Amino acid sequence: MLRVLIASHHFPPHYVAGAEQYAYRLARWLVHQGHEAEVVCVESIDYGDSPEPICTEDHYDGIAVHRLQFNLGTVSDPFRWSYWNPAIGEWLGEFLADRDFDLVHVNSSYLLSVSPIETAKDLGLPVVLTLHDYWFLCPRISLLHPDGTLCQGPESAMHCAWCRMTEQRRYRLLDVTTQRKLGSAVMRWSRRATMRRLLGLDRWLPAMRDRRATVNHALQRVDTVVSLSRFLSDKHAEYGLRPRRVVSIGFGMDPLRFPSQIGPRIHMDAAGRPDLGLRIGYLGQLAPHKGIETLVRAFNWLRTRPPHENGQRLRLEVHGGFGHHVKYERRIRRLAAGNPAIQFFGRYENHRVGEILSGLDAVVVPSVWYENRPTVILEALAARTPVIGSAIGGIPELVNHKINGLLFEPGDSLDLAKQIRCLLDEPSLLSRLHDNIGPVKTVEQEMAELMQVYESV
């Protein structure tokens, strides 16, 4: 029997994104296998009037959960506290001293900072870290500039400092208007101390250097890093963040949630007759980095094309929304207004994913950021639903073009429309993609690999 503490930035029921579901599946599996697993998570960072964590305890699906609430807005340097939170470190040290855990599994350091890693190692506990995103590389987590364009990677502290400054609208507009020539000029000017002071870079340059050194130090102390995709670990290594030991363990799926489909779906209309419509689905956040705008524009373009000769109708079901990007969601709905082929179904509960997928012919994952290992792709493949995905990040590791799905250029709505059109122009293509989807890794297989990691540390 193992005693495992899982430290996660969030945890259900109020937070149910991919990383939160990962922590929940892991904790639930450990408990069901007779191990002891407890969770420490952040519930709120704007609670009360102090950065000192207040802990509330409850049980979620038989899992003991310790939820921390504090107010980061009360500290003098919120940026430093975002990656080195001494209050969480002190609280966790007292918490661990009263319990006899065998290891600590850190499920992303976002919101938690690297303090849990350093605290656990100082107490002599093994630490396993799962990478879900680019938090260790990028203060913005996503490797996206404030204007939505991709960052190739943190080439220098100066690049990160300037990126931080463009979060202010006046700098961002100037940089975009000059087609990034302003940013290039700032890189040159920054060699002079006088110009750094005038531009206000003196504040951010040391901060970015300190962040890089602090997170890299913690990363080197981790016993084993679990990366969910090769792309993610390669990206960290490319910019000098090389943990001592990295293993790649992909998500596992519960096959009972996704009844296997023998062949392509046959949909019926309201009168019980076969419906020839091609149903394309989107499941997830309505957020800029998820690329839903690319998908809507592709459908708007397809609407202007002549109808297909076999009379197939094309429909898009959008499942998700009502999140933190309210203005962006309104913009997407305005963009789709007037196109009867696009329907918005709103937020959905995770347990309904299998049901939703059973009514779709294909799923589109149009992300414009470096996706790691999108859960929705694994869920779609588990339900034997072909995926049309943007060729970015870890997506091509899961989707093989014209084998089990289709790929298109990120952000290119015409290329996406072309791939969707292929499904209409070549009726046998969908069947071939469906038939080529093999079995996906199960939760049991994933956990067996993870238990090997636990035993090794």
Describe it for me?
The chain is an alpha/beta fold and 457 residues long. The strands form three sheets. The protein has an eight-stranded mixed sheet with strand order 3-4-2-1-5-6-7-8, sandwiched between helices. Helix 4 links the parallel strand 5 and strand 6.
Topology, please?
Elements: E1 3-8, H1 18-32, E2 36-44, E3 54-60, E4 63-69, H2 78-83, H3 86-97, E5 103-107, H4 115-122, E6 127-131, H5 157-165, H6 169-177, H7 181-189, H8 193-199, H9 201-221, E7 224-227, H10 230-238, E8 246-248, E9 267-268, E10 274-275, E11 278-283, H11 292-303, E12 314-319, H12 326-336, E13 342-346, H13 353-357, E14 362-365, H14 375-382, E15 387-390, E16 405-408, H15 413-425, H16 427-435, H17 443-456
Shape: globular
Number of domains as seen in the coordinates: 2
CATH architecture of the largest domain: 3-Layer(aba) Sandwich
Stated plainly, the CATH topology of the largest domain is called Rossmann fold
Taking the sheet with the most strands, its summary is:
8 strands, mixed
Q: How many β strands by DSSP?
A: 16
User: How confident overall, as mean pLDDT?
Assistant: 88
Q: Strand order, main sheet: write it out.
A: 3-4-2-1-5-6-7-8
The secondary structure category is alpha/beta
Q: How many DSSP helices? A: 17
Low-confidence stretches: none
User: Any idea what the radius of gyration is?
Assistant: 23 Å
Query: What is the level 1 CATH name of the largest domain?
Result: Alpha Beta
CATH homologous superfamily caption of the largest domain: Glycogen Phosphorylase B
- Between the first and last Cα atoms, what is the distance in angstroms? 15 Å
Classify the beta-strand content into a percent band: 15-25%
Amount of helix: 25-40%
